[in-house]
Amino acid sequence: MKKIFIILHTLFYASVCGAQVSDDFSDGNLTNNPEWIPDMPGNWVVENGQLRSNVSVANSAFYITTPSAKATEAQWEFWTNLQFNTSSANYADVFLMADQANLLSATLNGYFVRIGGTPDEISLYKIVNGIATILINGTDGVTNSSNNTVRIKVIRDADNNWTLQHDATGGTHYFEEGTVVDNTFTASSYFGIRIQQSASGFFNRHFFDDIYAGEIIQPIPVSYKDVILTEIFADPSPQVGLPDAEFVEIYNRSTNSINLAGWKFTDGSSTATLTSRILLPGQYLILASNTSAALYSSFGNTLGASNFPTLNNAGEALMLRAPDNTLIDSVNFNTTWYRDEDKKEGGWTLELIDVNNPCGEEDNWTANETLQGGTPGYVNSVNTNKPDVTGPQLVSVTVTGTQELLLTFNEKLEKQISKTDFETEPAVEIESVLFTSASLRQVKLNLAGQLQSRKLYMIKVVHVRDCAGNSIQEMHNQKTFALSEAAEPGDVLLNEILFNPRPGGVDFVEIVNTSDKYINLKNWGLGNYENEIVLNTRILSTQDIVLSPGAFLAITPDGVILKNHYPLGIESNFLIATIPAMNDDAGSIALISDTGIKQDHLMYNDDFHTPILKDTEGISLERISTAEMAANRSNWRSASSAAGFATPGFINSNSKPHAMGDEEKITIDPEIFSPDRPGQDFAQIRYKFEQTGWVANIKIADQQGRVIKTLANNETLGHEGFFRWDGDREDGTWARMGYYFVWFEVFQLDGQVKTFRKRVVIAR
User: Fold this and answer.
1) Binning pLDDT at 50, 70 and 90, where does residue 2 land?
2) Residue-wise pLDDT tens digits, 392-422
3) 667 Ramachandran zone, left/alpha/beta (phi>0; psi -120 to 50)
4) Which residues contact 32 (CB under 8 A, 6 or more apart)?
């Protein structure tokens, strides 16, 4: 059992000013901070972070003292463990005040607490010229046990009122033995301990710890983030330099000393209740299980606790709470915070970078940089200013019920929020607001009225601040949301697949919402389809993902690679997820809902591609019409070269509108252009066809019919698009002023051929 520099008090919060003596013996010596003086060298030792007697002489008395001038308006506290049944010949006297170091002197003056004696009690005495007189007669029989663990507190106020209290379990639930008024002595020189022992059965069985003699500890309210978690050792294996034992480190960033008695450290499933320990301003403390705490006692201030949570290597939410369950700090860490692939495998701690920015999470934590793998009990190896000067962002809004919204932010918020901080359009009355967890990143809004289906809403967040006090960013303070509905077969369909990517590329599967519903894709999956059974299912997401009417979603294992290969792809419509394997020549893909119902499937083959293509690597198959079955191979075509050979996240180049309007149309815009006239320095050659799959050859010819520029050579087209002519020749020189012709030829592989001839003019 290891305590701290001072002691506790009955309240949960404490402040210590000008302490004269404070020692928890965690430094392992009697010579520094403070210096203890035994009557004979070797009579006292420090063992396992506690002061222990070390005299093997029967019928002996011995002592140890340390300078202490505290005498009035003072508080004394200490913990002791006497491993024997006390008696008239076996007891301990703890001198609160003494006028000399020799506690056996016949002229000694002062006050002391006797633990034991004939009545086996804890009592307050006054001693004048070596003659002791009882002031507060304690309850008999308190130490009538073979093993007595007691915590004692004495207070002397400004009016010389003395109060004696103790907890016979060693905790902080004090029982008051009584009070007395006495002002015989108002000065002190020493604090000390005197032992009276008889036979060998009492040798070396006196233990003391958590000694404090100083100002009266006054109650001080503890605020959020006054004490913070600063280091986490969740994965001690493989061992690098630290003991093979988990711990967390806390730090008092307030200006007050704080008593940790009754505080709770929890991961949500297990909770450790801390024993009395006063944490000084600017002081670090190692928290661990009772067994692990002994391994860390040489590193710094350590406190062991029963039922200490087993930390999850992959990360979890850790919380520090005051005795009344008020949240003081929380950290929801994960292995990405290490920023080091090797160190996250174990043996190194996670460290808080800036203790003055306790609100920062993933941006304010990193792996330890010392050779031993951690810095338990003292300043972190990575310790620098990393202030949070950026406001929070609203990341998402999820409808979790017809009268409930869940808002997620990118960082911790201030604990104080209200329903006036949120506005909706169309207006919906907000009944209440609360955080969903100690992470303070998610807020639940309970609505007074019900949301309507198939209706788009917008929510705006105002006045909300992050944990550091920064206001929410105006560019990231609003989102749209809608009440989702269950999907029926045909509502969400396969729309595009890439099963044979370029070297270094990735597959993707695109789906589209063809209904007028808002559909939640949480727990939907993609799988292979064989013998009318869906196999190898991969769940797209366990989070809420709402697909709007008409919206596209490209599902891929790597959005960065996909965007690099297809720059026209819309990243906001990418979903990063594991998808089932798709063979390069032939295979299958199936889409299933969260209820396990198959929504759509496709048995594909490489020969679905346009035969004119020499190489189909990196070219997607696009669905022509969502009104036609996916099983119809005629409903799939290669993505057009004009669209970059794939259209992830947006409308297919081969998509066939239900109503084309003007069909078979080639237009030049503008028909007259000038390369040196801003805004009209090139011509767009626009096309629009009712049928897809056309292959185009496009050339520019002069008035004599000579080809001066080729714009397309066997390019596959979608339904509509455009080409551009800047007025240049094949050799890069500018064409002269005058009339030119656009020769636009398209053909189908079934023999259809169409030719268009349009005029274009270069002016100066």
Assistant:
1) very low
2) 999 999 898 899 999 999 988 988 899 999 9
3) beta
4) none
Question: Are the CB atoms for 225 and 117 separated by under 8 Å?
Answer: no
Give the closest residue to 112 by CA, choosing from 87, 85, 130, 139. 130
Determine the Cα–Cα distance for residues 135 and 129; give it in Å rounded to an integer: 16
pTM score of the predicted model = 0.53
Q: CATH number of the domain at 97, please.
A: 2.60.120.200
Judging by DSSP bridges, how do beta strands 50-53 and 44-47 pair with one another? antiparallel
Residue 25 in 3-state DSSP?
A: coil
Type of residue numbered 370: T
Other residues' Cβ atoms within 10 Å of the Cβ of residue 187: 11
| Residues paired with residue 123 on neighbouring β-strands, in sequence order | 114
Residue of 740, 746, 744, 734 whose CA lies nearest to 759: 740
> What is the Cα–Cα distance from 460 to 472, expressed in whole angstroms?
11
Stated as kind and residue range, the H or E segment containing 561 is helix 559-565
Domain CATH for 531:
2.60.40.1260
- Tell me, yes or no, whether 58 lies in a domain: yes
The SS3 assignment for 474 reads helix
- Asked if residue 553 lies in contact with residue 547, where contact means CB atoms within 8 angstroms, the answer is yes
DSSP string covering 669-700:
ESSEE-TTSTTSSSEEEEEE-SSS--EEEEEE
SS3 476: helix
Asked, for residue 518, whether it belongs to a domain, the answer is yes
| Domain ranges, residue 735 | 665-762
Residues 606 and 508 in one domain: yes
Residue 764 has pLDDT above 90, yes or no: no
Q: 236 preceded by cis ω (within 30°)?
A: no
Q: What is the per-residue DSSP string for 435-501?
A: ESSTT--EEEEEESSPPPBT--EEEEE-S-BBTTSPBPPGGGSEEEE-B-----TTSEEEEEEE-SP
Return phi, psi of residue 172, to 5°.
Answer: -120, 10
- Each residue of 492-525: pLDDT tens digit? 999 999 999 999 999 999 999 999 999 999 999 9
- What is the chain's Cα-based Rg? 39
Structure confidence at residue 171 as a pLDDT band (50, 70, 90): confident
Cis peptide upstream of residue 238 (ω within 30 degrees of 0): yes
Q: Check whether 538 has a pLDDT greater than 50.
A: yes
19 pLDDT higher than 50: no
Q: How far apart are the first and last CA of the chain?
A: 93
